[in-house]
């Protein structure tokens, strides 16, 4: 695995054997390598294996057909020719094929156990993402952002409860969010009592309520729209959204990953992603009690997920599954 044999092509047989004996005597044992968890040893060997050696399952390589069958098996009444192209235009079969082989196939069992990411399966089945209304009215991104803001810093069940209450305020439901529009929110702001008719009945905090009002104003004023957000780069989307008070890096990552289907999102600021990373790779971080720290362990987390690029959205998704985050 090094260039040493090429350097010795002109040596005599005796010197070659002697050099090999020396090299063998100083080569670290595999056990010692397995105990090292710093970033440099976690990434580069995995990249070589990903590129050169297909991962096998019961002595059979994982084929595209098997992955297509896995996707179809999780979609009721799916046809043989169902599209596996995501909202952003990349192919889920390609992504899963790559991620099931990357980093020594460490995600393979998780993917088989939990199935393909549900956010993509719903889109393949219905042509809609999780928060989309019944018509294409230009406010689908608005609805998704409202859902993300409502769920900030809440566990899955609590976030779902608040989201349902918020939708009821504007005459919408989880099954049909069409009535959730910027105009519906701003009508309450202009004609009703914000506290009594919006914040309190929905259960939103004051900060979340103000953020949703600011989003409504930005969409109504044209600073934000479906066209603007879906056509911009990840960096441009981040800049535009973070101009809205209450939208930070975590909210941007959730929007790009789950609503826009961007393929290479790694939300290091998400606790579940950090916990899942630590659990899967059996590493400790520099945070309290050995937990992963978003700042101190940023390079380590990036290096562990690097082999999955350009599909780190897939590896990120399975970190949620690994720590059983439901939402």
Give the end-to-end Cα distance, rounded to a whole number of Å: 45 Å
Taking pLDDT < 50 over at least 5 consecutive residues as the criterion, the unreliable ranges are 1-19, 21-60
Order the strands across the largest sheet as they lie in space.
1-2
**Structural class estimated from helices and strands:** mainly alpha
Q: Strand-residue fraction?
A: under 5%
Number of separate strands: 2
What's the SSE pattern?
Answer: HHHHEEHHHHHHHHHHHHHHH
What is the helix content? 55-70%
Major sheet summary line = 2 strands, antiparallel
Radius of gyration, CA atoms, in whole angstroms: 24 Å
Give the rounded overall mean pLDDT: 83
> What shape does the CA trace take?
globular
Number of helices: 19
Describe the model.
The protein is mainly alpha-helical and 327 residues long. The protein has helices at 4-7, 13-26, 30-34, 39-52, 64-73, 92-105, 108-114, 118-126, 140-150, 156-169, 182-191, 194-202, 206-221, 226-231, 234-241, 249-259, 271-281, 298-305, 312-322; strands spanning 56-57, 60-61. Strands 1-2 form a two-stranded antiparallel ribbon. The two termini are 45 Å apart. Strand 1 (56-57) and strand 2 (60-61) form a beta hairpin. The radius of gyration is 24 Å and the shape is globular. Helix 5 crosses helix 6 (92-105) and helix 9 (140-150) packs across helix 16 (249-259). The protein contains 19 helices and 2 strands.
